[in-house]
Each structure stands twice: as structure tokens, then as C-alpha cells.
Give the backbone structure.
Amino acid sequence: TEGMNIQEISKIFHRDASEIIKKLLLSGVMANQNQALSKEVIELIALEYGVEPEEKVVVDKADLEIYFEDNEDEELLTSRPPVVTIMGHVDHGKTTLLDQLRHTRVTEGEAGGITQHIGAYQVEIEGKPITFLDTPGHEAFTTMRARGADITDITIIVVAANDGVMPQTIEAINHAKAANVPIIVAINKVDLPEANPDRVMQELSEYGLIPEAWGGDTIFVQISAKYNQNIDELLEMILLVAEVEELTANSNRLAVGTVIEARLDKAQGATATLLVQQGTLRIGDPIVVGNSYGKVRTMLNDNGRRIRSAGPATPVEITGLNDAPQAGDLFVVFEDEKSARMAGEERAQRAQLEQRDTKKKVTLDNLFESL
Ligand code: GDP
Ligand code: MG
């Protein structure tokens, strides 16, 4: 059964462990004697020896989605910061807006003001935090939604007042609508003499984004990202929408969330920026992240400061994983190290098997193509 190692399985089938290891190698699975094996791998061995594995209905602990199920007791929920993505056409001012927010609203870290890029950060207005995803908006939507991770609560669509609605503006609207995420329109570059906010509003009306002044329910804010005009108003509007949305989370549980970005660092090993969605993430937590696992060894906040714990909607950068996960992967904290390791290894093995299957399929396809 699941979690057995090759030593144990070799006894069941009365075979040499080395023979089983060879068979697995031939099927493209690397395993050593003492490694806990996944259900799929054990089934593979059983089939090799002509044994039909019996069907078992068990909760698959390596399936990370189950830890995200929305069955939180209402009484345990408290309000949490909104997670905001900025989207819009190229050159309409997304980066300028993010930089403006970062430079004027984020308190510098103690590490001599070295603000490293961790893919997400928090801004405070009237003592209330707002989390911004600093990844290209489309990426945040497509990669993460493709993996079933909806992490954005509010979308800011930036439209340059001198340029109006452009193809990527429409794309952004469609993304946000498909994800059912409320939209706030930031009409940018209103400092320019040729700025024409009315035209932008007119154009957006055709896409169902109608300003309140015209009887609609879309919030429009006219800003200049470059000259820091009306940015506070934009932040206040975000809080207003967040309030309407009643965003909540349970901070008293084992943490779960999503990978914003990850990389392999020569000195530190795997480093991942995580967005905590439920629970509180703590130093030392046994954790499964995508197909990797480990213990949270270090944790930095968006200012590069070492922190010991992080609650819902907080972005953090962690180390301590055995491998780098991918943006959009889910993470789950486990009760104990052993369960985390087993789930992590199982996921890695499954990924290996999947990869092998894809390779096989590709080779067969090539074969047929060449016939
Ligand atoms: P992105 O492609 O959407 O990230 O756009 P950028 O932030 O890179 O901005 C594109 C150009 O527009 C840059 O040259 C910015 O300096 C300029 N820009 C951005 N916001 C403003 C603004 O509010 N007013 C003016 N005049 N220029 C702006
Ligand atoms: Mg940009």
C-alpha cells in the first residue's frame, strides 16, 4: 500500500529489491530502497508482477486542492487584506503605478533600504494593508488560473488617457470578467495635455464598464502614476471594494496558499515567494510546495526583513525546499515532517511518471509521423 518502500514491497512479491529498482528504472522512475513509494508506482510494480492492485477509496493526502476546500467555520473567519492585480495595455503605466506605490507607500526595510523584487508587496493606507501582485497581470491570471488558483480579489485596469482602449485593455477586461473579479478603472496620464478621460469612459462603456456618474457601477479613478496624483484615492477605492467583497480568512489553521514565483539560488537553494491564503505560515513549518517539500527555514517579508510568521494575504519569500516549485503551484503546511515528506515525494513521483508518459507519447507520435 501507499507509502511502502521497495524493501517492504520486495518481500511481498518475493523479489530482490534491486530487481524492482531496475524495473522501475526501465519505466523511467528513479527510486531507492528506503524511499516511500506513491500509489501509482506501487501499482506499476504490481502490474509488472501480474497482480491487479485492489481499488481503495482513500483521501489522497498528496492532492493539495483538498486542503483549500471552503469549509471554514464562519466564526473562525476574520477580515483580511485584498489581493490586487494591475493589468492593462503596454505602456499605459502599469509598472510606473507599481513603482510609485512601492516607493511612496512601502516602508523601507532595515536592510539599508534594499528592496528586492519578490513578486508581491503590501501597501498601507489608513493603517489597512493592500497586497499587490507585482507579476505581469496576464501571467498572474493565466498561469495561476490554469492551475485552479484564483488569488486575485480585485483587478485594476490601467488605461492611458491619451491612448484609450487598446487590444490588451480588452484582454484584461475579459480576463477579469472570466475570473469574476471586480474591476476598478484607473485612467492614467491625466497630466498630459492631450489626456481625454471622457473618451476612455465612453470607450469602456461599450465593454460594460460604466461609471457611477453615468448610472453604472464601475469605479473610475483619474490618476497620474508618474506624478503621484490621486494615488491615495485609488487606494481608498480598493479598500471600499474590498469591504463590499467581505474578504475573510481563518488565520488559526495550518497555512495554505499559492506560489507567486520561485527560483533556484546557488547560495540559498530553492527560494519561493508565497502568498498565504489561509492560516498562518511559521518558521519551521513542514511544507509541501508544488512537487517539492521541506521545512520553512527562513522567511522574509516584502521589505527583505526576517519574520517568524505570516497571516492571510501576506506575501513572503521562503527557503528550505528540496527543489524549486513553479509559479501558480499550491502550497500546504502539514502537521508533521513525515506527512509532508510522503506527500512531497508522492507528488514528485507522479510528476516523474507524467513526464515519462508525455515523453513516451511524444516518441510514439514522432514514430507515426515518420511512417
Ligand atoms: P507599462 O508598459 O504599462 O508597464 O507602462 P510603463 O509604466 O512602463 O509606462 C510607459 C511610459 O509611460 C513610461 O515612459 C512612463 O514614464 C510613462 N507614464 C506612465 N505613467 C504616466 C503618467 O501618469 N503620466 C505621464 N505623462 N507619463 C506616464
Ligand atoms: Mg511594464
Observations:
- The CA atoms of residues 86 and 156 lie 5 Å apart.
- Residues 88, 90-96, 188-189, 191-192, 224-226 surround guanosine-5'-diphosphate (ligand 1) (CB under 6 Å).
